[in-house]
Amino acid sequence: MKELEFEEDEYVILSQDKMFPDSILPLKTDEAILTNMNFIYIYKNLFGSIEDIKYIPLKDIQIRKKEACVSFCKKHGMLYMQLSLIKSNFLFGIDYTGDMFEWKYAIKNVALASSEDKRVTRCDSCGAINSGYEDQIITCKFCQNQIKI
Ligand SMILES: [Zn+2]
User: For 38-66, what is each residue's pLDDT tens digit?
Assistant: First the structure.
């Protein structure tokens, strides 16, 4: 059985279950994890066992005009999130559509920060994703809380 592996300085920013892959009649049993370094897609079977794990380094997500290329698209009559990578695209869906906006926002921010060699952290007051250089003190974009990166 496959197991998740994290790199030394890797930490989780967002994780969620009930994800589904690019397929006509997908089981909605997969899981995804966004870390400060990777987008990790975990293929699970009906019994919750891991079938496969795909690690997508955030640095592989294309950046155009200072924006990470993460978008929505329709396929098989469902809404998917599309990560535009250097050589291909990766699609996945989330059973609860409302969560797609949070994921899109998070991946865009973390991928851009990673392309600028910034560190990402969540505000301990409101949970928003903020980024900056190591040891820098920044003000949260949403609640004005002071955060040390
Ligand atoms: Zn905040």
Answer: 999 999 999 999 999 999 999 999 999 99
52-60 CB contacts, 8 Å cutoff, 24+ apart: 52/2, 53/2, 53/4, 54/90, 56/83, 56/85, 56/90, 58/107, 58/110, 58/111, 58/114, 58/115, 59/111, 59/114, 59/115, 60/85, 60/86
Distance 106 CA to ligand 1 centre (A): 14
Q: Is 127 strand, coil or helix?
A: coil
> How far is Cα 79 from Cα 102, in angstroms, rounded to an integer?
14
Distance 88 CA to ligand 1 centre (A): 35
Asked whether 118 and 68 are in contact (CB, 8 A), the reply is no
Question: Ligand 1 center to residue 134 CA distance, Å?
Answer: 18
d(CA 40, CA 33): 5
CB 37 within 8 A of CB 58: yes
Tell me the three state secondary structure of residue 5: coil
